[in-house]
Design a protein that fits this description.
This protein has 232 residues and is of the alpha+beta class. It has 2 domains: 65-171, no CATH class; 174-232, Nucleotide Exchange Factor Grpe, Chain A, domain 2 (Roll). It has 4 helices and 6 strands. The protein has a 3-stranded antiparallel beta sheet. Strands 2-6-3 form a 3-stranded mixed beta sheet, with no helix packed on it. The longest helix is centred in the middle third of the chain and has 115 residues, at 24-138.
C-alpha cells in the first residue's frame, strides 16, 4: 500500500513538471526560428542585390537612349540650320551680284546721261566757237597794223575764243583739224571734191568747218573738201 502511494506521488510530480519544461523538439524549433528568419532575410537580400544591376542597366539604357535621341535631334537641327545657312549664303551672294550688276548698269546710265548732257552743251558752245573763228577771219592784216583799237579788239576776240576752247578741252572736247589727212568717213564729212595734180586723191585739202570729239567720240564731223581722183 505504501509502495502504491509512492508511485502515485511520483506520477503526480512528473506531471507537474512536464508543463513547465518544453519538449526538446519545441526548444530546438524555437532556437532555430530566429536563424531561419535571418536566413530568409539574407536570401531575400541577396536576391534584391542580384536584381539591382539589371535595374541599373535598364535605367542606364533608358538614359542612354534619351541622350541618343537628344543628340539625334540636335544633329537634325544642326543639319537644318546648315541648309538654311547655305540657302541664305546663296541668296546673299545672288543679292550682292545683283546689286553690283545694278551698280554697273546705273553707273553706265549715269555716264551716258552725263555724256549726253555734256554733248548737247558742247554742241551749243561749238556754234559760238565757230562764230569767234569767223570773226577773227574777218579782220584784215593791214587794218590790225593801222589801228590800235582794231588790234585790241582782235586780241580780245582771240583770247575769248581760246578761253572757250580751253574750257571744252577740260571736259574732254577736242577740235579736229584734218587738213592734209586721208579722208575718213567716220570723222569727216566731204562737202565737195576737186582735182589737184600735186596732191594725193582722197586727201583733205580744205577744211570748211572744224570737227570735234568728246572723249574720242565724234560729236561733230569736220566738213572738208577732198582731192578728186582724175580717173573718177
Amino acid at each position: 500500500m505504501r509502495a502504491f502511494s509512492t508511485a502515485s506521488a511520483l506520477r503526480v510530480a512528473y506531471r507537474s513538471v512536464l508543463p513547465r519544461t518544453a519538449p526538446v523538439s519545441s526548444r530546438i524549433a524555437r532556437a532555430t526560428a530566429p536563424r531561419a528568419s535571418a536566413f530568409r532575410l539574407s536570401v531575400r537580400g541577396y536576391a534584391d542585390e542580384a536584381k539591382k544591376p539589371e535595374e541599373v542597366s535598364t535605367e542606364e539604357a533608358a538614359d542612354l537612349t534619351a541622350e541618343q535621341q537628344k543628340i539625334k535631334t540636335l544633329e537634325e537641327q544642326l543639319e537644318t540650320k546648315e541648309k538654311e545657312n547655305v540657302d541664305l549664303k546663296d541668296r546673299l551672294l545672288r543679292s550682292v551680284a545683283d546689286f553690283r550688276n545694278l551698280q554697273g548698269v546705273t553707273k553706265k546710265d549715269v555716264e551716258k546721261a552725263k555724256a549726253f548732257a555734256l554733248q548737247k552743251f558742247a554742241k551749243d558752245l561749238l556754234e559760238s566757237v565757230d562764230n569767234f573763228g569767223h570773226a577773227l577771219g574777218a579782220f584784215k592784216e593791214e587794218d590790225l597794223k593801222k589801228s590800235k583799237e582794231i588790234s585790241d579788239l582782235y586780241t580780245g576776240v582771240k583770247m575769248t575764243k581760246e578761253v572757250f576752247e580751253n574750257t571744252l578741252r577740260k571736259h574732254g572736247i577736242e577740235k579736229v583739224d584734218p587738213l592734209g589727212e586721208v579722208f575718213d568717213p567716220n570723222k569727216h564729212e566731204a562737202t565737195f571734191q576737186y582735182a589737184q595734180k600735186d596732191k594725193e586723191p582722197g586727201t583733205v585739202f580744205h577744211v570748211q568747218q572744224l570737227g570735234y570729239t568728246l572723249n574720242n567720240r565724234v560729236i561733230r564731223p569736220a566738213k572738208v573738201g577732198i582731192v578728186k581722183n582724175d580717173d573718177a
